[in-house]
Amino acid sequence: METTTHNAHIKIPAHVAIIMDGNGRWAKARGLNRNAGHQKGVDTVREITSAAARLGMKYLTLYTFSTENWNRPSDEVAALMSLILTSMEEELFMKNNVSLRVIGDLKRLPENIQEAIRGLEQRTSGNTGLTLVIALSYSSRWEITEAVRHLAAQAANGRLKPEDIDEACVSQALSTAFMPDPDLLIRTGGELRLSNYLLWQCAYSELYFCDTYWPDFSEADFMKALEVYTARERRFGKTSEQVTTANE
Q: Is 183 a catalytic residue?
């Protein structure tokens, strides 16, 4: 459900998903190591998470590390894993009443990171504001494949009839079943693709692309994206007249 800010003209979506792109290019443009871009990107995560919490947003999902990212140079992967571990600051969650959820193929992560994630999820589970969802070792094709396997197993043991499988059934089998689909998907860094991210869930999401690299993406940039979102008409296959009538 959308809410409005003190700027009454801005609608706050219940769920925003972000592809945080451009860390490496930000660093390269400054003659720095790619890892410096990832480190600066963590500061942006803190800023945008805090902003989303203040705005009353319910869910913020960040594409942090894809299954394809495992193919990056081993030293960069190791640095990213270390950064993920050190950046999970409990103070950020408690100060902003934010709970943590992590989705993805977590079995591939180092055990110490798995333990840190489980611990922080548990300690923040009582927070009632924003839920920060981290997509880690995640890809949409992996997620959908896992869901198909789950449904096939249920059908094989007689607990589910194939003809009873519908869209709602598939959605409930996904790792995102606990939250609504994104209203808005933002991608920074100038690329115009979804990169295997929440493909099922973003079927009717509004898409917003900007050239700003993630380390430079500010709260002002975030608000600009929300302003663009506010100006759009979400029809979900209906006509403008039908939407207008329904909202009257």
A: no
Contact 62, 45 (CB under 8 A): yes
Q: Any idea which residue has 């690299």 for tokens?
A: 213
Q: Are 18 and 62 in contact (CB under 8 A)?
A: yes
Q: Which residue in the list 33, 69, 127, 196 is annotated as catalytic?
A: 69
CA distance 187 to 191: 7
Contacts of 225 (CB under 8 A, 6+ apart): 184, 186, 208, 210
CA distance 182 to 185: 7
Active site residue 181: no
How many whole angstroms separate alpha carbon 164 and alpha carbon 30? 55
Beta-bridge partner residues of 18: 62, 186
Instruction: Taking residues 164-183, report their average pLDDT.
Output: 97
User: Is the pTM value of this prediction over 0.90?
Assistant: yes
The residues near 224 (Cβ < 8 Å, ≥ 6 apart) are 210
Q: What is the pLDDT of residues 66-86, one digit of tens each?
A: 999 999 999 999 999 999 988
| List of residues 6+ apart from 11 with CB closer than 8 A | 2, 3, 4, 226, 229, 230
Residues 11, 206 contacting (CB under 8 angstroms): no
> Which spans in 34-128 are helix H?
34-55, 74-87, 90-95, 111-124
What is the rounded distance in angstroms from the CA atom of residue 175 to the CA atom of residue 145? 11
